[in-house]
UniProtKB/TrEMBL annotation:
It holds the Pfam family RHSP. Residues 730-758 are annotated as: Disordered. Residues 1-61 form the DUF7578 domain. It comes from Trypanosoma conorhini. It comes from the Eukaryota. Residues 119-232 form the Retrotransposon hot spot protein N-terminal domain. This is Retrotransposon hot spot (RHS) protein. Residues 730-747 have a biased composition (Polar residues). Residues 247-492 form the Retrotransposon hot spot protein,C-terminal domain. InterPro entries: Crinkler_effector, DUF7578, RHS_C, RHS_N, Trypano_RHS.
Length: 798
C-alpha cells in the first residue's frame, strides 16, 4: 500500500520528489513503470532492488493464484520469479514443512481432556423469549424466562428470510426507526433466549454466560444449513453435498456466541445418522461432541487447534460424518486441512476477507450474511438485562418502569445513534467510550487516501479491511443482487436458481454491502469529505460521464456542485425553465449574480428523522441564507438538498415580469428583501412527480427541524431545480403532484405547494459541466463556497 514516491525515498533517494500526477500506488506502478518514470537510469535502479522484485513477483504469483506456501510448493513454474524471491519462498516452505512435521509428531501423544456435564446442558438448553407490544410492561417488552424445553413462539419462514435489494435498504431502516419510535400494534416476538446451565463453548463453558440470544438473523443461518444437511445421504461413506459456509457479520453483534451456540444446539439434536459428531473450534481449543457409539453424549477438549484438526481428520478418514464450527480470530484462521469428504461446516468471521477467503476458495464454500441488531431488538436486549438484574426493593414498579424508559431514551439510544446497533459497544460503558474516542481521533488524523476511503464508505462501495478504521465506520448489510451464469454449479450460494439448457443460472444471489454503521458516523464522514479539498477527484468523477460513475454516486454528491462558483455559473447558464404553459418563461433568481447566497458558502448536513427532539445530541437550528442543507438520509421526501437566497424586492419585480437582473435595483434604504427557497433534486428519470403525502411529510420534517420554517414557508418564493445525469432523458414538462395521500382543497396548503407556487427548472450535467467541475476541483483553491475557498461546515453538536 506504498506510493511510488515513498518507495523511491525509502530505497533509492531520500530527497526525491515525484509530481502528484505520477505518484501512484506501487501496485499500479508495477503494471506500467514507463508510464510513471521516463528516467531510464532511475528505472533500472528501481527494477534491480530486491524490494521491487519481491513486489513484482508477489503480483505475478497472485495473478497465477499462487497465494500461499502450499500453492507455491505445488507450483510447477518456479523459474518465472526472480532468484532472490525463489530462494526466499523455498526457504520459507522448507521451514513451514519442518514445523508442521514437528507439530504432528508432538500431537500424536497428546490426549484430549473430558469436559463433564456440558453435552446434556447444551442438548437440553431451555427456551425463553422477549416479546414487544405490551404497553403495561417495562419498555413495552414482555420477558418470559427460559424454562421451556421447546420454544413457545417461532417466526415464520417469510419473517426470517428477508433479503432486500440495495435500493430497498433505506426504506427498511426507516420503517425500523418508526417501529422503534411508536407503540407496537400487537405482540411481536423480538428474540428467543436459549439458556445452558453450564454455559457454551464460545465462553469456555463459563457459567456466567448462560444465555444466547436467538434473533431472526440467527435462525435464518440455521434454516440455510438445515436445508443443505437435509439433502445429505445417510449411507456410510457417501460424499454428496457436504457443503461449507462462511457466516459473515459485523464485529460486535454477538455473532460468534449466538450463531455458534444455537447451531451447535440444533446439530446435537439433528439425526445422528447424518451427523455423528460435532467439532467446535474456539479460543485455541477444539471441543468434540460425540452423538453415537459408546462415547455418545460426551465432550472432550483438545487443547490446541492442531490436535483437534488431527482428530477430526482421522474421523473423516474413517468415514464418520460430522460438522465443524470454526470461530475465526486474527490469530486463528480456518485451514485448508479442515475435512471435506464427509464433513460440512461453518466458519464464523468478520467481513475482513483476509480471515477466510483463501479457505473459502479452496473449500468452494458459500456465504451467509448476518445483519446487525434492529433498534427494537436492542431494546428487547435491554429489557432482558433489566429483568435479570438485581432490583432495588425501595423502588416501586412504576418508578422502575420510568427509570428504564429514561435509560433507554437518554443513554442507550444516544449510544446506538453514535456507535451503531452493536451490543458490545452499547451496553458496556468503557467499550462505548473507547469506540467513540477512537472514531473522533481517526477523523482528526485524516489523509487523502483515507478521505477517498470515507467517500467509498458513504457510497456503500468500501471494501472491508482490518486496518483499524473500517470496522469502526461500517456495518455489513445483506442484499439481493443480480448475478450472471455461474460455473461450477457447486459454487452456488443460497440463491434463486433456474435451469437453462441443463445449466444452473443464478438470477439473484445473496450478497452484502458495507454502509455507515450509524447516522452520527455517516454525518461526520459526509461533513469531513465535503469540507476538504480531498473531495476533488471523486466529486469530479461523480459529475462526469456515466461510463465512469454510477447514478447512485451522482445522487449522493451531485448537489455539492452548487458550492463551486465557477461550476454553479455554468449550471445556472444551462438551466431550462419548465413552463406551466407554452411560451411561459421565467428566469431563475440564481441568474442574478447579486443575489445573496447564490453560491452557498457553507453546508449543513442534518439528520431529519422525527425532528431534533428524537435525535440524541441534536440541536434546533434556524434556516440561514447561503447554507446548503443536505439531509443525511436518502429517504428525505421530495428534495435531495436545499438552500435559501435573498434579493431586493425591486429585483424580484423584474423577475416576475420576465426580466433578468444583473445589477441591483432600488434604493438600499427602501428596498424590501425577498427570500427564495432553492430546492435541489437529482434524478435519473425524465419525470419526478411527487405526491401530496410526500409534500406534507416534507413540510412536517421542515417544521420539526427548523425553528423559523413556519414563518418562512408562506412568505418566501420557491424554485425547484431537477439535476439530471448526462445520459438521462431530459425533462421537458413541468413536474406535477398527484392526489395520492394527504391533500386539501386549499391550493395554498403545504401539501399542494408544488403546483401553484414553485417555479421549476431542469439542467443536464453534461460534459462541459463535468469538465468545469473537474477543473475547479483540480486547482488548489477549490471553489467549494462563494469566494473560491473551501466551504466550511455549520457548527454541529458533538
Amino acid at each position: 500500500q506504498m506510493t511510488l514516491n515513498d518507495f523511491i525515498r525509502r530505497y533509492v533517494a531520500p530527497n526525491f520528489v515525484l509530481d502528484e500526477e505520477h505518484n501512484v500506488m506501487m501496485g499500479v506502478f508495477i503494471q506500467g513503470p514507463e508510464d510513471c518514470i521516463s528516467d531510464e537510469r532511475l528505472l533500472r535502479r528501481i527494477r534491480n532492488l530486491p524490494e521491487y522484485q519481491f513486489l513484482f513477483d508477489a503480483r505475478r504469483l497472485m495473478e497465477l493464484d499462487v497465494g500461499n506456501l502450499q500453492r507455491w510448493g505445488d507450483f510447477e513454474h518456479k523459474e518465472i520469479v526472480f532468484p532472490i524471491t525463489r530462494t526466499k519462498l523455498n526457504n520459507a516452505l522448507a521451514a513451514a514443512e519442518a514445523n508442521e512435521r514437528a507439530r504432528q509428531e508432538a500431537a500424536v501423544t497428546v490426549a484430549p481432556v473430558p469436559v463433564e456435564g456440558v453435552y446434556n446442558s447444551v442438548f437440553n438448553a431451555k427456551w425463553g423469549y422477549v416479546e414487544s407490544g405490551h404497553a403495561a410492561e417495562p419498555l413495552g417488552m414482555r420477558v418470559v424466562e427460559a424454562n421451556a424445553t421447546e420454544p413457545e413462539k417461532m417466526w415464520s419462514e417469510s419473517e426470517v428470510n428477508v433479503i432486500p435489494r440495495p435500493e430497498e435498504i433505506d426504506v427498511i431502516e426507516e420503517d425500523e426507526e418508526e417501529e422503534d419510535e411508536g407503540e407496537a400494534s400487537g405482540a411481536r416476538l423480538e428474540f428467543l433466549v436459549l439458556t445452558s446451565e453450564k454455559g457454551w463453548p464460545y465462553k469456555k463453558f463459563d457459567v456466567t454466560f448462560k444465555d444466547v440470544f436467538v434473533r431472526k438473523e440467527v435462525l435464518r443461518v440455521w434454516n440455510v444449513l438445515k436445508e443443505d444437511i437435509d439433502g445429505w445421504p445417510t449411507a456410510a461413506g457417501a460424499r454428496l453435498g457436504r457443503r461449507a459456509y462462511a457466516v459473515v457479520g459485523t464485529p460486535g453483534i454477538g455473532k460468534s456466541l449466538a450463531v455458534g451456540s444455537f447451531v451447535l444446539h440444533k446439530l446435537l439434536q439433528y439425526d445422528p445418522a447424518k451427523i455423528a459428531v460435532v467439532a467446535y473450534f474456539v479460543e485455541g481449543s477444539m471441543y468434540l461432541f460425540r452423538k453415537t457409539g459408546e462415547q455418545a453424549g460426551t465432550v472432550v477438549e483438545y487443547k490446541t487447534p492442531l490436535h483437534g484438526m488431527l482428530a477430526i481428520q482421522a474421523l473423516d478418514e474413517r468415514q464418520v460424518a460430522g460438522y465443524y464450527i470454526f470461530d475465526v480470530t486474527k490469530e486463528r484462521r480456518p485451514s485448508d486441512a479442515l475435512p471435506c469428504k464427509h464433513w460440512g461446516g461453518i466458519v464464523l468471521t468478520s467481513p475482513a476477507g483476509i480471515n477466510y477467503e483463501d479457505w473459502m476458495k479452496q473449500r468452494e464454500a458459500d456465504h451467509i450474511f448476518v445483519n446487525c441488531y434492529t433498534a427494537r431488538e436492542m431494546k428487547a436486549f435491554y429489557a432482558w438485562q433489566a429483568h435479570n438484574s438485581p432490583r432495588d426493593p425501595q423502588l416501586s414498579e412504576e418508578v422502575r418502569k420510568r427509570e428504564l424508559e429514561k435509560g433507554w431514551k437518554n443513554l442507550l439510544k444516544r449510544r446506538i445513534y453514535e456507535v451503531g446497533p452493536l451490543p458490545r459497544f452499547v451496553f458496556r460503558e468503557k467499550a462505548y467510550e473507547g469506540r467513540r474516542s477512537a472514531i473522533i481521533k481517526m477523523e482528526n488524523a485524516v489523509t487523502e487516501r483515507e478521505s477517498e476511503h470515507y467517500i467509498k464508505v458513504l457510497l456503500h462501495t468500501a471494501d472491508w479491511y482490518e486496518d483499524g478504521s473500517t470496522h469502526k465506520l461500517v456495518k455489513l448489510v445483506r442484499v439481493l443482487e443480480e448475478k450472471s451464469t455461474i460455473a461450477p454449479a457447486s459454487a452456488v450460494s443460497p440463491v434463486a436458481l433456474t435451469m437453462v439448457q441443463g445449466r444452473a443460472v443464478r438470477e439473484e444471489a445473496e450478497s452484502s454491502r458495507n454502509r455507515p454503521v450509524s447516522p452520527w458516523i455517516e454525518r461526520r464522514l459526509l461533513e469531513l469529505v465535503t469540507g476538504k479539498n480531498l473531495l476533488s477527484s471523486t466529486l469530479g468523477q461523480v459529475l462526469g460521464t456515466k461510463a465512469e460513475v454510477s447514478a447512485w454516486e451522482l445522487e449522493r454528491f451531485g448537489c455539492f456542485a452548487f458550492m463551486s462558483e465557477d461550476v454553479a455559473d455554468t449550471i445556472i447558464g444551462k438551466m431550462k425553465y419548465l413552463p406551466r404553459t407554452v411560451g411561459d418563461e421565467r428566469p431563475s433568481v440564481l441568474a442574478d449574480k447579486n443575489t445573496v447566497g447564490r453560491v452557498p458558502s457553507e453546508r449543513c448536513i442534518f439528520d431529519h428523522r422525527k425532528g431534533t427532539d428524537n435525535i440524541p445530541g441534536a440541536v434546533a437550528r434556524m434556516l440561514q441564507v447561503g447554507v446548503l442543507y443536505k439531509p443525511l438520509s436518502n429517504y428525505f421526501p421530495v428534495l435531495d438538498a436545499f438552500y435559501l437566497v435573498e434579493r431586493k424586492r425591486a429585483a424580484a419585480a423584474k423577475k416576475k415580469s420576465g426580466q433578468a437582473s444583473d445589477t441591483p435595483t432600488g434604493d438600499q434604504s427602501s428596498a424590501e428583501r425577498v427570500i427564495t427557497f432553492i430546492g435541489l433534486q437529482v434524478t435519473r428519470q425524465d419525470t419526478h412527480n411527487t405526491t401530496a403525502s410526500k409534500m406534507a411529510s416534507f413540510m412536517e420534517y421542515m417544521t420539526l427541524n427548523f425553528n423559523n420554517w413556519e414563518v418562512l414557508k408562506r412568505t418566501m418564493e420557491w424554485e425547484f431545480i431537477y439535476i439530471q445525469h448526462a445520459d438521462s432523458t431530459p425533462m421537458t414538462r413541468r413536474q406535477r403532484g398527484t392526489d395520492q395521500g394527504k391533500s386539501t382543497s386549499d391550493p395554498q396548503a403545504p401539501e399542494n405547494l408544488s403546483e401553484p407556487r414553485v417555479e421549476q427548472y431542469q439542467v443536464q450535467l453534461d460534459a462541459e459541466i463535468a469538465a468545469q467541475l473537474f477543473a475547479a476541483f483540480k486547482r488548489n483553491n477549490v471553489g467549494v463556497g462563494c469566494g473560491g475557498g473551501v466551504g466550511r461546515a455549520v457548527s454541529r453538536p458533538p
